[in-house]
Write a structure and sequence with these properties.
The structure is a homodimer. Chain A is an alpha+beta fold. Chain A contains 10 helices and 11 strands. In chain A, helix 2 runs parallel beside helix 3 and helix 4 packs across helix 5. The interface between A and B is large, with 73 and 73 residues. Strand 2 of chain A pairs antiparallel with strand 1 of chain B, so a sheet runs across the interface.
Chain lengths: 317, 317
Amino acid sequence: MNEFQLIRRYFDRPAPGAVLGVGDDAAILAPTPGMELVVTSDMLVEGRHFFAGVDPESLGHKTLAVNLSDIAAMGARARWATLAIALPEAGEAWLAAFSRGFFALADRFGVDLVGGDTTRGPLTLSVTLIGEVPAGQAVRRDGAQAGDDIWVSGELGGAALAVAWRGGRAPDASFDAIRYAERRLDWPEPRLQLGERLRGLASAALDVSDGLCGDLAHLCERSGVAAELWLSALPCAEALLPLRVRAPALFAAGGDDYELCFTAPRAHRAAIEALSAELGLRLTRVGAAVSGEGVRLLDVPGGTPVFLTHASYDHFR
Amino acid sequence: MNEFQLIRRYFDRPAPGAVLGVGDDAAILAPTPGMELVVTSDMLVEGRHFFAGVDPESLGHKTLAVNLSDIAAMGARARWATLAIALPEAGEAWLAAFSRGFFALADRFGVDLVGGDTTRGPLTLSVTLIGEVPAGQAVRRDGAQAGDDIWVSGELGGAALAVAWRGGRAPDASFDAIRYAERRLDWPEPRLQLGERLRGLASAALDVSDGLCGDLAHLCERSGVAAELWLSALPCAEALLPLRVRAPALFAAGGDDYELCFTAPRAHRAAIEALSAELGLRLTRVGAAVSGEGVRLLDVPGGTPVFLTHASYDHFR
């Protein structure tokens, strides 16, 4: 199988949302009048973002999901993706499973794969995603105000527990907790529906990819505010509850959860709770934006500081 | 230096053509009304697309240039780029030189770097480029007609000679030839001005990245025509002329030249020659589209076939 057969067999699918998809020097896209584009690129490297030998179907899902999560954090709708992939060898079973995972998620959110590149090399995956959002309505990181609530979607800590488990350094945890954690790590769910509905409700948002405290610090810096977070409020699965006090960093600084963290005026509390019920998605108030700078983690509102060994994941630390 | 300091120091530049550049979950772009987007992604892997230890400034140039070349081949104007980069270590001198080469070329063509990703891993570079073209006017691969002329910009064979030279398997060549060849390999010049001017003149186009015969075969397949190429007509530098008969594959099947190959009706010959003079860029008629399928290389028009060991570069061969 050569490079072009490989592309044709596994990655050349109809792209109904594009003028021209895979197969030319570049794809041709017709942006929707009145919309702005949001564009994000992420790169996943074997041994760093995922373990060697991971299930290729889940890897296909995750490669797209981490980019969709950035689009969700902007309040945009995902439209088009490109995929550049370096592979040690053109293994048919691996490619079939990878592309199955990738396209299953793409189809769920109406995303067209419109281009990319395949080459031989250490397993590396790079996706660029383009979304659309009504002009001027993107949810950015720089809109938080002192006094805003801080919210988190879904549950935290699962993915970080799975990373620790596979690395042989997990705290004691139940079988149920590990099974749940592995699913969270391998099959993250991008919060696209939520993201679109946060337009007009959230003052700022980002996705939690490197760890809540560290990610939130970026939002605070760009908004010119500080944040107070409450460990006891951080949402987590029932099976992980015993770990929240014993291993707080999993929840407050663990990466790979791909939940949305957003700020919103207090006046929007009822609307956000109603949205949570409507979407069937947990939305939890976990802290408050205050004046100053930095992120402080307290055990409870008005309580005592919790110290972590690190605030988030840094690829060059 | 952590990941965010690295981005700030080397990759976070003003992006005057974007609503929002580096630093949020995604960039925000306002497409120009009446334009379509063209989008392309390429990935460069150390040891495959470039030699380990290559000058990082030329690598920064080339990483962007190979993507700009795809935009040129569509007849579009380049606007925005993202860069995802995996690095074995965050070496400051390397990063400074790489970003200097990247931004020098970006500035020449008014391209804004609007986002990306940095991570640790085997040296891998992935760029996505977004360009704009008036709706319906992109130059695609599928418009060639039997009877059209086939043209090539610039000169062929230099980059392939440099690859052979560095790999220790070059044919005998002069010092001048090698010096020229290395410059062609390391500092390819994307033909953006030419590309934009080919709208309305060319019936089809692509860039020569994997080798003329192989690349042209893709154009022929999508257009439903065959091609006849004349080895004696393939443009090459004076210093390389002695090699054209001894090592025809360098010219007819060598990769990495990043020239444009395009088809055009005979009625446009004078206009194309005038354009060549205006741009100060050699444009050479190298063959003809004919009915049938496949690409045939002849020594001269109406002459005898030339056989090559391969038609183009294939990453999985």
